[in-house]
Amino acid sequence: MSTTQMLKGIIDGCILAIIHEKEVYGYELAERLEQYGFDSFSEGTIYPLLMRMQKEELVTSTLKKSIAGPKRKYYSLTVKGEQELQQFIVRWESLQKSVNSVLQTKGQKNE
Amino acid sequence: MNKNLSKESQKFLDNLQIYLVSSGKNERESNEIVEELTDHLRLAESEGKSVQHIIGHSPKDYMEQLAAEMAFDKKAWIKFIVTIILGVFSYTILTRAASGNLSFSLLNVIGLTFIVALLIGAVFMMFKYIAANSLSKTKEYSLYFLYSLFSLLLFIGLILLDQRITTPVVNFSEISTLIIALLTFAFLVAVSFWSKTWIVLIFLAFLVLPDLVLNQMSIDPKTQISLSTTITFGGIAVYLFVVTKRQKKA
After folding, report:
1. Fewest CB atoms within 10 Å of the CB: A17, A28, B12, B160?
2. What residue stretches are annotated with the Transcription regulator PadR N-terminal domain (chain A) (predicted)?
C-alpha cells in the first residue's frame, strides 16, 4: 500500500488540526504539512480537500489583504469543524492503539 | 516576492481556467481557485519548488480532482445556450430579411436549434480536451479546422435536407418581415447594451450591410454573392485581427 492511500482520511484530520491552531492560507497550510513530515503528496492536493471541507461546512474562508501582496483566502474552523476534529482525535487514538498492539505482538513472535 | 511565474505554471493556470469554464463550473468559484493557485505557485516558485511538486505529474488528473469538488452552474449554462440560440436566429432572420421576405420551414427552425445546441456542446468538449491534455499548437489548430468543417457540413446538410423534404412553411408578408426584422434588431441592440460590447452589432453590420448595399446596385448576381461573402468574412477577420492586436498591447 502506498503512503498516499494510507494518508486518505488521515490528512483531513491533520488539516483540521493545523487550521485549529491558527487561521492559515493555502500556501501556509501546505508548508506546515511539509514541516510535520508529510512530503509524499503534491501540495496542490490540499485545495480539493479544502473545497470539500468548505462544502461540508467544516471550514470557512475569508479574504484578507496581505502586506504588499494579493488578497489571500484564510481558512478557519467552524463549530462543526471543531467537533469533527475532536472526533478525529478520538478515532485516531483508538486506531493508533490497535495498530501499535498488532505490530508489537507480531514483533514479539518474530523475536 | 518574485512576480513572474514560469511559463509552465502560467500555461497550467490558463488551461485550468479554460477547463473549468468549459466544464460549466461556476465562474466566481473558478476564478477563486485559479487566483489561489496563482498565489501558491508564485510563492512555491520563489522558493525554488517545481510545478510538479504542487500539481503532481498529471495536470489532467489534478484538474479533474478540482472540478469534482465544484458545482455545475446550471443557470448560467442554460442562459448561455439560450442567448446563443437566440443570437443565431437573430442573425438568420436579419440576413434573410435583407434579401427579401422571410420564410421559415419547420425543419429549418428545428434543425437550426439542434445544430447550434450540438455545436455549443462540441466546442466546450473540445476546449476541455485541449486544456486537459495540453495539446501542441499543430494538434490544437487541426482540431479547430475539423470543428469548422464539421459545423459547415451540418449547415450545408440542413440546407440540402430542407430542399428535399417538405415541412410546413411560414411565409411572412413584407410588413411582417419588416416588423420582425425591427424587433430582432432591437433585441440585438438590447443584448449589446446589456453585455456592454458592440461585437454583436459589428458582426451584424458585416453580415447584412454588404447585401443591402449591393442589392441596390445593378451587378450580376454571381459577382454580388462572391463580393458580399468576401466583404463579410474579410471584414470580420480584419476586425478580429485589430481587436486581438489592441488587447495584446493593453
Report:
1. B160
2. 15-87
CB B200 within 8 A of CB B191: yes
pLDDT by residue (tens digit) across B65-88? 999 999 888 888 888 888 888 888
Is B52:B125 a contact under the CB 8 Å cutoff? no
Q: Provide the domain limits for residue A38.
A: 3-110
Q: Which of B39, B62, B68 sits opposite A44 (nearest CB)?
A: B62
| Least Cα separation, residue A31 to chain B (angstroms) | 10
Structural domain total, chain A: 1
Residue B44, chain A, CB below 8 Å: the answer is yes
Answer yes or no: are the C-beta atoms of A16 and A85 closer than 8 Å. Answer: yes
* pLDDT of res. A50: 95
Q: Residue ranges per domain, chain B?
A: 7-68, 104-171
CB B107 within 8 A of CB B162: yes
Chain-chain contact of B1 with A69 (C-beta, under 8 angstroms) = yes
The percentage of chain B sitting over the pLDDT mark of 70, rounded to a whole number, equals 98
- Residue A96 pLDDT: 93
Set of cell numbers at residue B106:
419547420
CB B143 within 8 A of CB B126: yes
Mean pLDDT of chain B: 86
